[in-house]
Amino acid sequence: MAKANYDVIVVGAGFGGAPCAALLAKRGLHVLLLDKNARPGGKAMTLTKAGHTYTAWVVVSAPMIDNQFEKVLKELGMEDRVKLVAPGIQDTIYRTPSGAIKKLPRMEAGNMDPNIIFDWLDIEEADREEALKFLTDLTLMPPSDIDGLNDTSFEDFVRRYKVPRPLYAMLVSMMCDLMFMVPVDSLSAAEGVKSLQEIFLRSGGLFCRGGFGALAQVFCDGVRENGGKVSMRTRAEKILVEQGRVTGVVTDKGVFEAPLVISNAGIQPTVLKLVGEEHFDRSYVNYVKDMVPSVGMMGTRYFLNKKVIDVPYGVIFSDESPWNMERYQKAREGELPSQGVVFFEVPANYDPDAAPEGKQMVMTGYWCPPDPKMTDKEKKAWRDMGEKIMLAAYPDLARHIEYKESYTPAHVCRLTRDQVLPGQGGECIGLGQVLGQCARSKPSIQAPVRGLFCVGCDAGGYGVGTQQAVDSAMKTADAVLRYHRLHQAAR
Ligand SMILES: Cc1cc2nc3c(=O)[nH]c(=O)nc-3n(C[C@H](O)[C@H](O)[C@H](O)COP(=O)(O)OP(=O)(O)OC[C@H]3O[C@@H](n4cnc5c(N)ncnc54)[C@H](O)[C@@H]3O)c2cc1C
After folding, report:
1. Residue in 33, 416, 424 to alter for ligand 1 test, most ligand atoms within 8 A of Cβ
2. Ligand 1: distance of its center to the CA of 18 in Å?
3. What is the mean pLDDT of residues 440-445?
4. Confidence label for 110 from pLDDT (cuts 50, 70 and 90)
5. If we measure between CA atoms, which residue out of 152, 174, 176, 192 comes closest to residue 436?
6. Residue 15 is part of a domain; what is its CATH number?
7. What's the 425 CA to ligand 1 centre distance in angstroms?
8. Domains: count for the chain
9. Is the per-residue pLDDT at 338 higher than 90?
10. Is position 327 within any domain?
11. 365/25 Cα distance (integer angstroms)
């Protein structure tokens, strides 16, 4: 078997692993980055089909201004190697209680007149003052007050105000169905308020030309161009530990040695499978097993013979669509509601090279359990709900479908992490997204085995999905460099 020595091995080239590896290579460490897939990007990799290029599923990043991607690209000196785009328009569709479809009027960038939103949502004059107070408090809340919400759910925070139902539904749909993918009564108010502030003040709707996988590819190039090695199609089978310290990684391509291993494979697969429970004390193993996944997202890719939608992305919601734990539990038991939230993305509307001339691919995404072993019957029920909502808002779409295909948590699991516990593996964001497991309670990037770190959405990061993973990457790169230098100096 091949043997090679590195300062650090990074397992997984997702949005946690790839930027972390690139930053460490740039800072002078000899890095090996490996991933089991042929392409980097993990949950935000790029796929291609019949002349279409797209991120594998609906992935809309936020914030736009001062985003985490640009911070890493800047340190790598690679800002010009990829094009991040924020088209600034979207369709936000409110399905009224009578079933009417109402689109939020398009507002000029920077125009945040709340009355336009209140008119669109049919909010009574008498309720507007309180609604405005809620929005103002939320937008201007200082960091110390946000930190005080660490143990409060977003639901409990909102209940302090008399927020009209449509406004509540709009905000909760945005946060729970796209940003954090957890029920509103398990969403941390500290995370929710901070992220909403960022979107209000620093805008959202950020995409990457060529799909987000193109950005992950640049991070991999950053590893190579700074003297590191990237080994794709290389599956880590075991992280080696001797006398409480990591010594390397066993892969299907050979054994690689290093005193530091950073795993982007997920905290549960890392601890329970790649390293093995026997190397940790019982309390840490129990802590890791208790982490709950975010929900999953499934949806359909509609390949159309005509351009039907003119915005890059959008959302459809109603007063009934916000998820809480009780509603989600009932849905899992088969009582699926008729109203959920549907997000959609149209890559050709922000990337001119994304589709063949005159064609369009529209991708939907909506909640579902994260379980990769969902039955066909369960998948059909969730898919039918999502499709009905999408086609009610865009009836033209049905006439122009050349073919369609769906994606589910089984696809997400296959492309990203191994299932090691029942019901987990196909989660949309990762673990550590709920109250008590995120914000100040987020799992540490440093695991209790010497030289072992976890990177990605399960540990250390803050924010939404892709940018949370990159936030974790930057913090992990700092911590690992410090660890490396301290241990070199102490030798
Ligand atoms: C359907 C869906 C929709 C989403 N929508 C959004 C959105 O709108 N906005 C947003 O910001 N985020 C969104 N996300 C979430 C976002 O994509 C993820 O949170 C983020 O990309 C996770 O990054 P990560 O590095 O933590 O993990 P991952 O992306 O899971 O990366 C892990 C990497 O490790 C590799 N790996 C795992 N095990 C091994 C092994 N044994 N050996 C070698 N390699 C291994 C995997 O192949 C993968 O490349 C969405 C995700 C999904 C699934």
Report:
1. 416
2. 11
3. 95
4. low
5. 152
6. 3.50.50.60
7. 11
8. 1
9. no
10. no
11. 36
- pLDDT tops 90 at residue 270: yes
Contact 355, 190 (CB under 8 A): no
Positive or negative, the Cα torsion across 205, 430, 68, 76?
A: negative
Whether the upstream peptide bond of residue 63 has omega within 30° of 0, thus cis, is yes
Q: Say what the pLDDT of residue 354 is.
A: 98
pLDDT of residue 1: 43
The pLDDT tens digits for 370-394 are: 999 999 999 999 999 999 999 999 9
* Ligand 1 center–CA 14 separation, angstroms: 6
* Whether the predicted pLDDT of 2 surpasses 70: no
Q: Which residue has the tokens 């989600």?
A: 328
User: Quick check: CB of 463 below 6 Å from ligand 1?
Assistant: no
Instruction: Give the residue numbers spanning the domain of 40.
Output: 3-55+67-84+211-292+431-489
Phi, psi dihedrals of residue 245, rounded to the nearest 5°: -135, 140
What average pLDDT does this structure show over 442-446? 97
Pocket test for ligand 1, best of 59, 470, 472 (most atoms within 8 A of CB): 59
194 lines ligand 1 (CB under 6 A): no
Closest-lying ligand 1 atom to the alpha carbon of residue 17? 25
70 Cα–ligand 1 center, Å: 19
Tell me whether residue 19 is in a domain.
Answer: yes
How does 391-402 read in b/e, with b if 16+ C-beta sit within 10 Å? eebbeebeebee
Is the Cβ atom of 61 under 6 angstroms away from ligand 1? yes
Burial string for 191-228 (b: 16+ CB within 10 Å, else e) reads: bbbbbbbbbeeebbbbbbbbbbbbbbbbbbbbbeebeb
